[in-house]
Every structure is written in structure tokens, then in C-alpha cells.
Amino acid sequence: MAGAAPRVRYLAGFCCPLGGLAAGKPRVLYHEAEVFLSTGSELVYVYDQEGGLLTAAFRFPDQVWHLELLAPRRLLYALCARRGLYCLSLDHPGRSRSTSRDDRDSEDGDQPSPVIPVDPDACILPDAALCAFTVLDSVLVTLVQGPARWKMQLFEQPCPGEDPRPGGQIGEVELSTYTPPAGVPGKPAAPHFLPVLCCVSPSGSRVPCDLLGDPGGFTLEDALFGLLFGADATLLQSPVVLCGLPDGQLCCVILKALVTSRSAPGDPNALVKILHHLEEPVIFIGALKTEPQAAEAAENFLPDEDVHSDCLVALGHHGRMLAIKASWDESGKLVPELREYCLPGPCALRCLWRGWPRVPQHPF
Fold first, then answer.
1. Residue 27 — very low, low, confident or very high, per pLDDT cuts 50/70/90?
2. Domain containing 31 — which CATH number?
3. Are 334 and 223 in contact, with CB atoms under 8 Å apart?
4. 3-class secondary structure, 149
5. Distance CA 111, CA 224 (A)
6. Domain range for 47
7. Which residue, 280, 301, 307, 322, is most buried by CB atoms nearer than 10 A?
8. What is the pLDDT of residues 130-158, one digit of tens each?
9. What is the pLDDT of residues 267-286, one digit of tens each?
10. What integer is the mean pLDDT of 72-79?
11. pLDDT band at 7 (very low <50, low <70, confident <90, very high)
12. Are 194 and 22 within 8 A, CB to CB?
């Protein structure tokens, strides 16, 4: 326990914001012996969890809104405000380049860490309107802020070992309308809340959506998956993108159906399904297992690819929580059961920080 106190002070020195504003939301990812931490500034810190040291800090050209890790390819993706999407290789992170010192990285006399400016060439998708993204092994999903609507776009991911820049666009669909925030004419203003994207797959799917340390990619039991997303998603064994919008809408899009919609007649916007409306900004989407046999794994927050979640959870900015589970009605028919809860602020923030939605007592 003697060695625990310095580490607590060390992480506390990052001054992570406690508010629910997505633009300043802290993000913690880990890969092997390294921890990557973003506090909502332009810096992404690299922390050695074995040695207990801050080894580097990557400086982006603007505030980092979101961070994701594609562990199988050892790639770190960062969404930079009003700049676009950046990609850094963990095998060649550029730490041999010249570094500068920043007094803000020193806390209580600790040695300052090297600050590494991110090369402009690391921007793989320049787009000032890009507000959210999630990445799979073969598909990059982005959400951009249009003149009056959110627009979801799909891009091909290059093969491993190739240039990480995404290939051609393979799908596009418009989501909910919104009122654009006031800003400079001709330049999109930063939204007060950012959308939330995550990918969910059926239990029988082997689609690689492993974002190590990130609960954004998960699998659902087939019964719940089919009830929520329909027969098309089940038959196609397709991943589904869940999107939580600042206006409170929780909607979904079947990836394979969106890809094939370009060559099929009909309106691709019909592929968007609204699951629920939280009536407050959605700031987190996750899943959990409520059955007793998975209680130990859930208690320790350990991901287990063989334990598929049976409850979908969405959390709003003010603490409203939605839990969806498959249950039998009085006639013996399997139906989705939706329950809403209101969590106090500190409890909701604890759930977000740990990266796993928990209720003190399971609602089911």
C-alpha cells in the first residue's frame, strides 16, 4: 500500500474534468504495459503502468475530443477538434523526434515528460465537421456535423501494414436534424455535446471490434440483438452502429445493410432506427451481463469474450439511465423490456470513469 499513494497523486495531477461535457471528457485506454490518457486538452499522455512513470505526451494541434485504440493493428486514433482524425502507430510513435519541455507536465517536483508534436501527416481524415468516430478492423465509422443534420459515413479500412489512411467511402446516411450552434459564418462551431458512437455485434459474430480497454465494442446475446435490431441484422450477422445524439435520441444503423444500400433502390435513411429518446444528451452507451453466473466477472470489470451481454445500457448527461433487456410477457412472447432510472451525478460519473455501467442492485 505504500507505493499506492504516489500513483494516486500522480494521476490526480492530470486534473481530469468531472463534468459530462463530451468535449472535455477524460479518456483512458491501455495496451500491454502502456496507458494512454486524454483529459480533453491538446495533449495525450503515455503512462508506463509497470514502472509507474509518465513516459511521453503527444501534442495535437487542437483539443482532443475522442480517443480509440485498434489493438490488433497497434494503432491509436485521436479525433482533434475542428481538424479531423489522426492515427499514430504504437510500433513507430515518433518518439525519436526532437522533443520540447512543458512545465505543465511537471507536478510536485517530478521530472517533466517529453512533449512530442504530432506530425501533420498523421491526419488521415481531415474534416472540420467531424464530431465522432468508431473504428473496426475493416470499417471506419464517422459522424459529421452537416448544415442541419448529423451524417454518418463509412470508409474502408486499409489492410494491415498499409498506409492507415481510409479508403473510399462505402456508405452514408443522414440522422436526426439539429439546431446548429452559433459560430463564425462558413465555419462549423463546436457542438456543446458530442455524439456517442459504438459498435455491437451478435454473439455468433466474429467481427473484430476489440477496442482494448474500451467498452464501446461489445456483443449482445442473440435474443436481445434480434429484438432490438430486427431479422435483417440477425440474418446478415452484421455489426450494428449505435449512436447517442445530443438531443437524446438513441438510434442504430445496420452496417452491412448500409454498405449494400448504394447499389439497392430505396431511401438509405430508412435504415436508421430510433430505439429510444432519453430527452437529455446521451453521453455513454454500454452493456452488461445480469445473469448470476457472470456476477463475478461483472464485479471485477473483466471483459470476457465468451460472456455475452444481455442488457443494453445508455446514460444521459443528467443521470437518466436506460436499460433494455429481453423478457417474456404474459402470453409467453419474447419482447424487449425498457426500464429508466435516474442516477445521482456522482454515481453516474463513477460509472463513466470505470468504463462500465453498473447499478448498485441489478434491476432485473
1. confident
2. 2.40.10.480
3. yes
4. strand
5. 51
6. 1-126
7. 322
8. 999 999 888 999 999 888 889 999 999 88
9. 777 889 999 999 999 988 98
10. 90
11. very low
12. yes
Q: Is residue 7 part of a domain?
A: yes
The answer, as to whether pTM is greater than 0.85, is no
With respect to residue 246, please indicate whether it lies within any of the assigned structural domains.
no
Q: Is residue 30 part of a domain?
A: yes
Cβ count near 259 (within 10 Å): 15
Taking CA atoms, 297 is separated from 71, 135, 362, 363, in Å, by: 22, 26, 14, 18
Portion of the chain with pLDDT greater than 90, in percent: 32
Between CA 195 and CA 88 the distance in angstroms is 23
In sequence order, which residues have a C-beta less than 8 Å from that of residue 4 and are 6 or more positions away?
Answer: none
Q: What is the count of structural domains for the chain? A: 1
Q: How confident is the model at residue 264 (pLDDT cuts 50, 70, 90)?
A: low
| Among candidate residues 224, 213, 214, the one with its CA nearest the CA of residue 252 | 224
Q: What are phi and psi of 336, to 5 degrees?
A: -75, 130
CB 193 within 8 A of CB 19: no
What SS3 state is found at 273?
Answer: strand
Which residue is it, cell 495535437? 60
C-beta of residue 282 within 8 angstroms of C-beta of residue 302? no
Q: How far is CA 212 from the centre of its chain?
A: 11
Closest to 171 (Cα-Cα) out of 255, 254, 259: 259
Residue 226 in 3-state DSSP?
helix
Rounded distance, CA 41 to CA 16, Å? 10
